[in-house]
Amino acid sequence: MTASASRSPLSRRSLLAASAATGLALCESVLAAPAAPGKSTEAAVLTISGPGVRGNRGPLDPVADLLLKNHGLAFDSAWTTGAGALERLPTVEITPHIEYDGQPHRLRGPLLATVLQAAGVDSAAAAAKGQWITLQAIDGYRAQLPLAQALQWRMLLATHMDGRRLGLGGLGPQWAMYDADRIAELAGKPLKERFAQAPWGLYHMGLHAQQPQG
Hints:
Number of helices: 8
Structural class: alpha+beta
Shape: globular
Distance between the termini: 15 Å
């Protein structure tokens, strides 16, 4: 099966046209996920849910998790991490040309497989079972692809570009990324067609036993 990407009703264009107050409320809700008992109180910048995830928080809260709710997400438990904990994971660096300026940039962060392992997921076993992954961005953009493909592409969750931390209002808090210059099925495509499965502003990843609908 081939990978797919879709836009929810909150597309990049519509969010750019929204009021500043609405945008601020959405960004604040990303950082408002409650800490699980006994866990770090560091504000969450990434939430992972789905089969095999070792949860460190309870079900979605329709008030505290407003952005997750608005993007149609739901879970009984999930794993969350703050920026500091994410950055303490082993990292890799890639230097792809990116679509926004056509120039190579140094992108650094942990591999997707490393992050999933931290969340209790055996990514190789999950991929062998045919699981899919949904990558949800703050602006509403959503990419879905087989987990096996994401692992084959050595997808990483970039936290830094050219030595600087990615932040809200830019490409952060994380950018799901891969080195498209060095992936045979992507390198031959026009630059702007290589990154449909690489959402910036990533804040939630969902695992699915099979290809999700929509």
